[in-house]
Fold this sequence. Notes:
By secondary structure, the protein is mainly beta. It has one helix at 274-279; strands spanning 2-7, 15-21, 26-31, 36-40, 47-51, 56-61, 67-71, 74-78, 85-90, 99-105, 111-116, 132-137, 143-150, 153-158, 164-169, 174-181, 186-195, 207-213, 219-224, 228-233, 238-244, 250-256, 262-267, 286-290. The protein has one domain: TolB, C-terminal domain (Neuraminidase, 6 Propeller). It is 2% helix and 50% strand. The termini are far apart. Bound molecules: calcium ion.
Amino acid sequence: MAVEVAISTIKNLLGEGPHWDDQEQKLLFVDILANKVYKWDPVTDQLDSVTLDDTVGAVVPCKKGGYLVGLGRTVAHLDWHSQKVTKLQEIPLNGTKNRFNDAKCDPAGRFWTGSMGHQISTNPNLFEPEKGELYCYGTDGTIKMWVDKVGISNGLVWTQDHRTMYYIDTVPEQVYGFDYNINTGAISNRRVVIDYKNYDDDDCMGRPDGMTSDVDGNLWIANWGFGKIICFDPKTGKKLRTVQIPAMRTTSCCFGGKNLDELYVTCASQGATEEELAAYPMTGSIFKVTGLGVKGLPADVYKG
Ligand code: CA
């Protein structure tokens, strides 16, 4: 196994939402606090970006062209070439300044996007509590709220049989399982499948942030605050592997590359101290982990 810097030319404030675009063979990701969407070609090393007029929580390609983004409190469509942004839905103000955070599409092409409360200070761990919610933006363009009183909405994954959805609330440090109805998009029977507070080792001292899954059904969870990606079996809660990343503020990960066997990892630099930046000079970069011996699944796109 090897961990290397994939993209060193940018230092993200809050790099997030990595999505391997299987069609274009490019890595999409966002810098939430820089209002930027990035697209990177690993073959040519070309990095393109679009700067929007608000925070951008996540980016997912649309089957019909362009991208869906969580822009501030809106679900919006981005046309890359013209940079035209079309706002499609807006969620209510909750607290003083809630915004969309992580988002993923389910295997039927619905866009699930969660929100979080306003960051109270420059400390990236302080937010207005329980102001987040989880929404589903359907393929018909309607939006429905499914979970309320969320701390920081993160980490969506569906099992290959489409019968379970996994979801993270970073603040209580828990991963939830829901029964999933792929025909209707309905979630039910919420339960805790991983609770970081039950692991008394150093690995789980951080907080669960973004995640992805592999072909074996295991979850790969970015550990905010301690520079680790941890692989769990969600059926047993067993911690299987830990990958150390040379940057403490790891935020999310996805499998990519032509064989879907490389793990791309995003991280943040916001809030890092001088000591931390000296110890981890690649803080804010995009990392790539190779030689894990596992593969991911093609990421789902919006089909509305
Ligand atoms: Ca996140």
